[in-house]
Amino acid sequence: MLLLSYNEGTLMIAASTGFSTNMAGFLVVAGRRVAQGQLGPAHCIVRELLSIGPSEAEIVMITDGRESRLPVYLPDGISPDQNRVTYQSRNHHSGNGHA
Fold it and tell me: What is the pLDDT of residues 36-92, one digit of tens each?
């Protein structure tokens, strides 16, 4: 069982074993760092509503001080009316010219 809590920009995950992991995530797009509230396999939930057209971006995850980055393409950009942002990984060629 996992317990999730969000405190001052840090997502905490605690397993039933008592082990906890400090995690933080954000999206880097158009020169901005946008906090994520949730990350799914093909979408993320951003905490700030912006107007950014389709563009390349990076998902940055920091887990226990270790940073990992995933280059992505945002085919629909970010809408000021929607905090769910669809992305496609740029690590694999998808045939749409945004490899």
Answer: 988 889 999 999 989 999 999 999 999 888 999 999 999 999 999 999 999 999 986
b/e per residue 36-74 (b: at least 16 CB within 10 A):
beebeeeebebeeebebeeeebebbbeeeeeeeeeebbb
Q: How long, in residues, is the chain?
A: 99
DSSP class of residue 84?
E
19 contacts: CB under 8 Å, gap ≥ 6? none
3-state secondary structure 48-59: CCCCECCEEEEE
C-alpha dist (Å) from residue 11 to 25, 37, 41, 58 = 8, 8, 18, 19
Angle at 93 between CA 31 and CA 34, to 5 degrees: 20
